[in-house]
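User: Okay, second chain of the day. Same drill as before: sequence in, structure tokens out.
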Amino acid sequence: MQEINNQYESISKNQAFNFAKQTEKEKEDFLRYPDIINMVVNLEGIIIEIIGDWIWISGNTYPHRQHLKESGFYFAPKKVMWYYRPAEYKAANSKPKDIDEIRAKYGSDLVQNQSRHFNLR
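Assistant: Same drill. Structure tokens below.
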């Protein structure tokens, strides 16, 4: 029980989990992320990173490109990374930003548990 309370406290302090300020659509999109990550979490040689409201995948993605595309990910050729984002989160700025700039602005979390199943809940 103590571990559950510690995890809840950690999550509740994270801005990404502050549902009180999110619309119903944003809540639904966010709660779909574990399902999306579970579609790719067992792919060999990839790195999964959550940056802001987007999921980024790097590493040895070439052998998995068809699966990533079928899972709803898009390829960013200048970053040589794949990303997932809800449609309404499309960047309005046409000038691409460097991935390090994006990490600095929104923060970054690596998905560490790549064995079998990812779970946010």
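The mean pLDDT is 78.

User: Thanks, on to the next one.
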